[in-house]
Amino acid sequence: MFTYLLNSFHVWTAGSWPLIFHWGLAIGVIILLSAALVGSYFIPVLGQYLTKFRMDILIAIGVIALMQGIFVWGTHTEAKRCKAQIVVVEKIVTKAASKATSKSTKTWKDPYDNPAN
After folding, report:
1. Is residue 41 part of a domain?
2. How high is the pLDDT of residue 57?
3. Residue 35 lies in a domain
4. Is residue 116 situated within a structural domain?
5. pTM for this model (two decimals)
6. Count of domains in the chain?
7. Is 56 part of a structural domain of the chain?
8. pLDDT tens for residues 53-73?
9. Interval 80-103: pLDDT, tens
10. How many CA atoms lie within 13 A of 101 on its CB side?
11. For 50, how many CA atoms within 13 A lie in the half-sphere containing its CB?
12. 40 lies in which domain range?
C-alpha cells in the first residue's frame, strides 16, 4: 500500500520539482530579506548593522521578484509552445498513418489513437 502511494505521489509530481525548487528558493530568499528589512527597523540589535543596507535589501527583493515574474512568464510560454508542438505532431502522425496500407492497420483499431484520451 505504501509503495502504491509513493508511486502515485511520484506520478502526480513528475516534472514539478524544478518548478517547486525555483519557486521555493525565490520565495524563501524574499521572506528572509523581508524579515531582515523589517528587523532593521524594529530590532535594535539588527538595526545597527542593517541600517546602511536597507536600500540594498529592498533592491534585492525587487530584483528577485522581477526574476521570478520572468521565470513564470517563461514557464507559461514554454507550456504554450509544447501544446502547439503536440498539435502539429498529432496532425502529421495522423496524416502519415492514414496513408499506411498494411492489412494490420486496416483491420485492428488501436484504442490509444482516440483523440479524447
Report:
1. yes
2. 93
3. yes
4. no
5. 0.64
6. 1
7. yes
8. 999 999 999 999 999 999 889
9. 998 999 888 888 888 877 776 666
10. 0
11. 18
12. 17-98
